[in-house]
């Protein structure tokens, strides 16, 4: 539930030293001019930080680094009535109701057994704080013993000196002082409060005060010194206890005077007097309780009080200020307040025997409670070895057993016990943690009062979820009923949802209908209808076979007045946007097909594919920072945010979202549109069957320079006519009565979350996610834009297929393109080089052979050629697909294999700047395609006979495809080898699943046209792709480099052959290159 650090900090914040205030009616009237009470005004200054003070206890001193005092009116220093405690608890529960996010989270986790986690109680800490605040001033409880009395009189009071006497006598006649429950050895201070609007002679009155009372304890407080026309606009920040909008006329001098006064009161009077009391009381305790004689005869000792009583009314005066028990309790409580837990445990234990001898059961219970708290908080001490769980548990259970079951002290003790034992450290590391023990402690409180009963039941249910989940369902339902009876509908809804969550994981069919019905009723009790939650609950409540028998979501809207339609809802998840489904693309390629567009959101596959190419581009002579999109997919910076994308004016952007219909009826969206600034948005329509999912693409065009913010998406929704996924209204427009259908306009904010950050240990520990900037775009005019298209690119190819893919480049910008480079790391893709010198200038390398650690670079423009706006050029390219698996560009997805083809186009143009100077403008276009590869031919080669002039070898070819291969033959693209006549050197109409062999010879002589098999076959039309390919590219050198064969065959006899296959009807051709050694 909570960690030890959180709980210890919270509990220590619940206990502070006390000062009491007694004020006259005139003083209260004067303070009301500021909008506050005297208590609120003085309490704001009862805090001191960065102090250097020590309190001496019996064996050591405790340094104080800061101190804060609580304040209360002296007339309130008595135990509150039960009705007052219940009223405050009810106010706390109403204030700390479950948040909308918590209810949403609980609703979304219904029917998900993996979502069963710790049950959060958002009200538990404020409730315990309220109990600690209300369960004060109990019998012999000196935690709230006032360490000073401040008497406040106004300068406008009649006879202020007499008013001070009246106030001091009134304080001394209060029961706590009259009976001796509080010591009178505390300082009294006399505060004269004077308003700037008053005409009273404050200085004369103050002078008389100092001559009548102790001059050092008389103080003059000035307020409202600022004129009304010069008042502050906001409340001074130093006034922490003052409501906003009050004390606007306090001048800086007023504030400084009050701070100086309270500093003197605390540091020069209260703390020295407290140190003196502790020193005197400690000496009395040592004389009375320490030593061998006192230890030997301690069992004979009874209370130092003159009489013994069993009733709590008489126990109030049993241990008065002159008794040794009072002194021990005072020192113990003061040690607790200054966090000296070793001393307070020692003194509380010393006190228990005296209380037991006096039959003072309440005092024993309260002292046991304080010992238990001290053991829990003791782990904060530097010398502590950890939480002493066994001792803490013993004293907690003892206090619960001894407290009267009808007292709120019993309720507080049980709650503190459960809270401490449920801390994360004890629950996960201590063998003494037992949820059943906590449940048996809390269960009796369920019948204590109407306000506390549901809280106890809820906590019991939360503990029972760990072991007895069916009992937890019953406890949650009972808590919901009692919360509902108290009018706490949000609490009741949370209890029912948690019961339902337990029910869905461990079925209890008997209460299924009850849970669904009650949950919907409680949702309607909320101040505003939560449509998202109601839709989710309806979807879960109505099974598909009974959905038609229930009123649909949209049909239920007829209860609303007609003038309220269409209903406008914000952040209602109808339809439901699936988390992390948002993807943003834009037409970097300026192509109408969105499959060609690049991603602005995280796209790991694309980023990994383009990373080697962009890495090579970064090593070129061109400064990559001059390319606007180069850093779009750069890693998140240390701030966890990506650079803002820069897009050209007129670019089109696509936002793709996956939507789910959470209802049991068809959902018709008549209009869906993005909400974006500086852009023209396009409307779309869709229809979702019950519980169906669908990806919807929203388009916009960047129409203005500057920034474009995509903030939300808006849906105009109506229900389908049928609940079974059909719309009887006919088409998207519906029937004749469509205008009468209730419509709902839903606007949902769009938020893009990046990937999880892993740069620092803090990011890994806190699960920090990066901040995506894809919804905030910077738009500017761009003179360079182009589109690239690979012609003849089929959705599927065969392994080893050779395909001619002419590349067309169209200038869609406003400036002529002077430079166009293609960079790719696909060594199966061959582009006709147009300007080798331009490539050498860009890469600072001649690149006689393509380097394995650098992308292949091709110029698409010939020397001196430019591409005017609107013009298109076509460059011949060839793709020789891999011959088998093991290639880095292959991706397997089930039984299918896909090949990735990617490149980056680097485009440059000469533009005119604002000062009429020329500048080179650059832009890049990323192109990535995936095609499916199918197996076709499996070959093996082996040498049969090696003669001096001719090497005979056998080629075994197996058709592994599901279709016939028209022809298979053997050739050599090596200029120093040719295939000799041998039979059979040609296979035709090879059926699927069959295996054939060919015996062929190869001679190491220059090819003579017209005399070799290669020359004759290469002239046939069906081999045109192969013939054109070896005509434009030296395949031998390329293959030697890519297969890293040069070191392997250096100085050795070797031959290269190509096993070529063709299918003239389907216009396909390919080859497998083999090395013979």
UniProtKB/TrEMBL annotation:
- Write down the InterPro entries for this protein, in alphabetical order: Ig_TPPC8_1st, TRAPP_III_complex_Trs85
* Example of a GO cellular component annotation carried by this entry: TRAPPIII protein complex
Q: Which Pfam families match?
A: Ig_TPPC8_1st, TRAPPC-Trs85
Region (Disordered) residue ranges read 719-738
| Annotated TPPC8 first Ig-like domain residues | 685-783
**Source organism's superkingdom?**
Eukaryota
Recorded hits in PANTHER family, A to Z, give:
TRAFFICKING PROTEIN PARTICLE COMPLEX SUBUNIT 8, TRANSPORT PROTEIN TRAPP
Q: What is this protein called?
A: TPPC8 first Ig-like domain-containing protein
Protein source organism: Blastocystis sp. subtype 1 (strain ATCC 50177 / NandII)
